[in-house]
Fold this protein.
Amino acid sequence: MPRYFFHFTDGRRTFTDAAGVELPGIAAMRQHAVAQIRELRAAMSEPKLQNWSSWKIIADDGTGDSVYEIGFDQAPPSRT
């Protein structure tokens, strides 16, 4: 099963995922990235932290190749 690494960046700062997550494929990796965005947006609900326009997740496949990128403001909101 492939291991994907999810790095968070705003273009100035980058938070690197050194552990990664084993997922069955690209579709599961995309779902995981969107879930991570939803969790972070929910956890950081202070008004001054709600401008997500410059933040994104870049997923790589462990070889350094980026396989997916999504902006925090592009992820659909959670269904409640």
